[in-house]
């Protein structure tokens, strides 16, 4: 199984602390990693088919404070598809003049959708097929980019059609909001005023968020497994879809 | 004006030497840079709206030997569109299950094509509009990915329709080949056995290619201005389209 990390904030925020927590788990998840940062409508997508433990690209992400309001990261342990750059999450496509970034943790069985639209997989994973199908169905449902509430409504109709094929924990963003779907394992929390100290579970690293934030800041973090040992992480119910805007669930 | 750099090779090759030569020119081209590497069908695209002189991302590219057979890089001096990540070249889209990477040097006047297909610009540059229009017209011309000769034929019909709107030096790749169109300023050369020493024009840096290659290696380099002072660069004629495969023009 892979591991997911998502971040949604009301002010551009770096994810060096959380990404360090994720990368620590890369020993078992050695088949690549990727991270996408939205900056307004633009995206920086770093992918590498080397482990996040060894990759110079991961080192850059851990030390260069890229500030973003929407981040999706993934470390991969291949279940379907060979270890290759084109199979490395997150995946990116453009729809309605907006970039969309998607990462998946899970395994879809017998999922061979009819992809007759403008979105075709480049690699050979079930995950990229699921993303292309989602983009195709969104494109059929709306003529141009709808508001977040409408998109959430459409996604809530589409998720069960993927979920019935197997494990489907996923993160999706178009830069306006971050959607998270829980299937077997996904957790979230919101950090907001009053901020306090937090310690990574798997690494001897602490951050005092009060010293690096303002009282107005708010950030939601979504991760496969809780990243810290001393914060209140909440589990997604199976089949639960949540949308995060400005650092909070809606 | 921006500056372009393209590389097409018959064996995965790094571009640290040539990219260093390009980045040296970033003082005047401070409005962002980007570089896309194909690795088989996968793409790594690094973009930054900071100058290639200062960006930690550019530093990574200069020091991490990413080996690729197709590379497209761009340093930007904004003529149309604000300085923002979504306006930073190269641009990337997916068509027929292949990624396409595009960068443009020039300025298209009154180019407002009808974009009725599946490719919409995210930013607000003439360049991204031109790329979306190219993708749309390619999608109309072929049902699935044709061979390089057929694609070249279609592109040769499309280029003049862009060129008549203004300066259109461009690089385009889908991982199989690299297409280059010259309008006002574009140069190319092929490095092959017997390899020799070359010195960057703008930086005190030399490479003896004989020491880092095998006799079978062949690499074509395309750049706005010749990058080295002691090699035979050839200029593109206005309106000339060339396709490079396995390190040589076809």
TrEMBL record, chains A, B:
<feature type="domain" description="Glutamine amidotransferase type-2">
    <location>
        <begin position="2"/>
        <end position="247"/>
    </location>
</feature>
<dbReference type="InterPro" id="IPR029055">
    <property type="entry name" value="Ntn_hydrolases_N"/>
</dbReference>
<keyword id="KW-0315">Glutamine amidotransferase</keyword>
<dbReference type="Pfam" id="PF13230">
    <property type="entry name" value="GATase_4"/>
</dbReference>
<protein>
    <submittedName>
        <fullName>Class II glutamine amidotransferase</fullName>
    </submittedName>
</protein>
<dbReference type="InterPro" id="IPR026869">
    <property type="entry name" value="EgtC-like"/>
</dbReference>
<dbReference type="InterPro" id="IPR017932">
    <property type="entry name" value="GATase_2_dom"/>
</dbReference>
């Amino acid at each position: 199984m892979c591991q997911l990390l998502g971040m949604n904030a009301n002010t551009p925020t770096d994810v060096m602390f959380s990404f360090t927590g994720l990368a620590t788990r890369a020993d078992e998840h050695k088949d690549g990693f990727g991270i996408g940062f939205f900056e307004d409508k633009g995206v920086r997508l770093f992918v590498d088919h080397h482990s996040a433990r060894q990759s110079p690209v991961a080192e850059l992400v851990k030390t260069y404070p890229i500030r973003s309001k929407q981040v999706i990261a993934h470390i991969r342990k291949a279940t379907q598809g060979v270890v290759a750059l084109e199979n490395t999450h997150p995946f990116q496509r453009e729809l309605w003049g907006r970039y969309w970034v998607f990462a998946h943790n899970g395994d879809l069985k017998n999922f061979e959708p009819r992809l007759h639209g403008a979105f075709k997989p480049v690699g050979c994973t079930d995950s990229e097929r699921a993303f292309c199908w989602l983009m195709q169905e969104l494109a059929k449902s709306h003529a141009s980019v709808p508001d977040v509430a409408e998109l959430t409504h459409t996604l809530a109709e589409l998720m069960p059609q993927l979920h019935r094929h197997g494990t489907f924990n996923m993160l999706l963003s178009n830069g306006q909001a971050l959607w998270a779907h829980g299937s077997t394992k996904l957790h979230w929390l919101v950090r907001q005023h009053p901020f306090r100290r937090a310690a990574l579970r798997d690494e001897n690293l602490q951050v005092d968020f009060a010293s690096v934030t303002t009282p107005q800041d708010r950030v939601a973090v979504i991760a496969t497994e809780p990243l810290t040992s001393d914060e209140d992480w909440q589990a997604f119910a199976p089949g639960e879809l949540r949308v995060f805007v400005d650092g909070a669930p809606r």
